[in-house]
Amino acid sequence: MASALRLGVAGLGTVGASLIRLLSKNGDALARKCGRPVVLTAVTARDKTRDRGLDLTGVTWFDDAAEMARSADVDVVVELIGGASGAAEACVRAALTSGKHVITANKALLAAHGVELAEIAEKAGVSLNYEAAVAGGIPIVKTLREAMAGNSVTRVYGILNGTCNYILTRMEREGLSFAECLADAQRLGYAEADPTFDIEGNDTAHKLALLTSLAFGCKISADDIYLEGISSITTADIKAADELGYRIKLLGVAQVTESGIEQRVHPTMVPKTSAIARIDGVLNAVAVDGDFVGGVVLVGPGAGGNATASSVASDIADIARGDIAPALGAPSNVLTDYKRAGMRLHEGGYYIRLSVFDRPGAFATIARCMADADISLESIVQRRRRAPGSLNGAETEVHEAQPVILITYETSETAVRQALEAIEAKGVVADRPQMIRIEKLS
Ligand SMILES: NC(=O)c1ccc[n+]([C@@H]2O[C@H](COP(=O)([O-])OP(=O)(O)OC[C@H]3O[C@@H](n4cnc5c(N)ncnc54)[C@H](OP(=O)(O)O)[C@@H]3O)[C@@H](O)[C@H]2O)c1
User: Fold this and answer.
1) Which residues bind NADPH (predicted)?
2) Residue of 9, 15, 131, 141 to mutate, ligand 1, most atoms within 8 A of C-beta
3) Is residue 207 among the annotated active site residues?
4) For residue 16, which atom of ligand 1 is closest to its CA?
5) According to the 3-state scheme, what is the secondary structure of 153-165?
6) Rounded CA gap, 236 and 224, in Å?
7) Per-residue pLDDT for the chain (442 aa), expressed as one digit of tens each?
8) 137 lines ligand 1 (CB under 6 A)
9) Whole-angstrom distance, CA of residue 245 vs CA of residue 144
10) Catalytic: which of 100, 207, 219, 249?
11) Contact call for residues 4 and 38 (beta carbons, < 8 A)
12) Is the pTM of this model over 0.90?
């Protein structure tokens, strides 16, 4: 057998500890598959005294991650600290500049510095692998980088945040409010104490930025992602979507259009018949449309120590076999500049929920605003809200705001925004209109 591949693991938290358990349980099988042993030689974390339930006998402890990365006893540095800067960044840079292979699960770091780090890795002739950074246990990086290399990709999209999918699934199944479901997600450990990063779509955006680069051969451009989270979604929207044949998911979508590449993260109505609509709870899914293969959908756990460690192990296996691929799927000197397609140019169907004052002419005003913006309506649903508890159990009509739901045919974002601004300005609605984009899926 060839010489052992020596690993230094930076970060012994959820993922780091799972990786060490995986190596201890499946290390022999991994060695057989790779044709060489894989051994843990060094570790680092913040607190040396913490009992992590791991057997680290014979493994060298480092107080400083960058120092470990430069150690002569390490061939591969596995960065599992997290964060776009600080110790994680220092560790990865030290490893690459010392000619060490790097494996990381850190989407925040790669979204911010991925292109530059890929260049450094290439110059040093080492790997920068990050299967675990996008959708945890789902092998989407390998799929895009290798399995779909023969395709021209037109769209990549997915459910990339389990916390949001858990909240939306429970809202739909149990009719609970967003706030109730978020509180439960926090109690169950699916959401952080400060959930902003998940529910406002930033976490999805980091992963989408990497998918975009891999799918379209362009530089990573995380700052160019249109972002809308799920906190404005109500049970009324979920119910209306259900009745209209849709489900609401937080999607990250990257798509080639005539004006460039759209990168967008927003709540999305997806047809109930689509594969993505059936992904429930904390599961993730990533779908890729390729010109030759057609549509491919990968489903699996997007987070959790074991699932994420499984992806880290696949990166280890590639390096152990000497399989060194360019980090972003193509050498960095051929990556194109990212050409942003402005969100205002986005085209698609739209769901619009209005709270319309029950006044003569209100409907005609809305219809006029839509027509002025050149928007054709596929359906209009009006529900007359009734006041409960009237005499003899009979209900009387409420003459206040009534919910009205509009579904548009394909139109542009500019047109929809223009129409909604006009409707608000005419004073016929009680609240800000709700607008959710509909994704065309087969
Ligand atoms: N958890 C998941 O399900 C998941 C899924 C996909 C990707 N990821 C990514 O995987 C990475 C790790 O996530 P995690 O959930 O395992 O995080 P975690 O549980 O918070 O663990 C972080 C580890 O980093 C160590 N650390 C913090 N600062 C350090 C420093 N300055 N020097 C050395 N070590 C330091 C911590 O040490 P102490 O233990 O001593 O505090 C801890 O062991 C992140 O990039 C995350 O985005 C996680």
Assistant:
1) 107
2) 15
3) yes
4) 16
5) EEEEEEECCHHHH
6) 31
7) 689 999 999 999 999 999 999 999 999 999 999 999 999 999 999 999 999 999 999 999 999 999 999 999 999 999 999 999 999 999 999 999 999 999 999 999 999 999 999 999 999 999 999 999 999 999 999 999 999 999 999 999 999 999 999 999 999 999 999 999 999 999 998 888 889 999 999 999 999 999 999 999 999 999 999 999 999 999 999 999 999 999 999 999 999 999 999 999 999 999 999 999 999 999 999 999 999 999 999 999 999 999 999 999 999 999 999 999 999 999 999 999 999 999 999 999 999 999 999 999 999 999 999 999 999 999 999 877 655 554 454 444 445 899 999 999 999 999 999 999 999 999 999 999 999 999 999 7
8) no
9) 31
10) 207
11) yes
12) yes
Question: Beta-carbon neighbour count of residue 18 at 10 Å?
Answer: 21
Q: Measured between alpha carbons, how far is residue 9 from residues 20, 60, 252 in Å?
A: 9, 10, 30
**Coil vs helix vs strand at 85:** coil
Q: Backbone phi, then psi, for 189, in 5-degree steps? A: 80, 10
Residue 20 beta carbon below 6 angstroms from any ligand 1 atom? no
Fold observed for domain 345-438: Alpha-Beta Plaits (3.30.70)
Please tell me if the CB atom of residue 163 comes closer than 6 angstroms to any atom of ligand 1: no
Task: Say if ligand 1 is within 6 A of residue 15 CB.
Answer: yes
For ligand 1, is residue 151 a contact (CB within 6 Å)?
no
What CATH fold (topology level) applies to the domain 5-133? Answer: Rossmann fold (3.40.50)
Q: By the 8 A CB rule, do 408 and 416 touch? A: yes
Task: Check for a shared fold between 5-133 and 345-438.
Answer: no
Residue nearest to atom 33 of ligand 1 (CA): 45
Nearest CA to ligand 1 atom 38: 46
Ligand 1 pocket test: which of 9, 14, 49, 129 has the largest number of ligand atoms within 8 Å of its C-beta?
Answer: 14
* Ligand 1 center to 88 CA (angstroms): 9
Query: Could you tell me the residue ranges of all domains in the chain?
Result: 5-133, 140-301, 345-438
Q: How far apart are CA 175 and CA 228, in angstroms?
A: 22
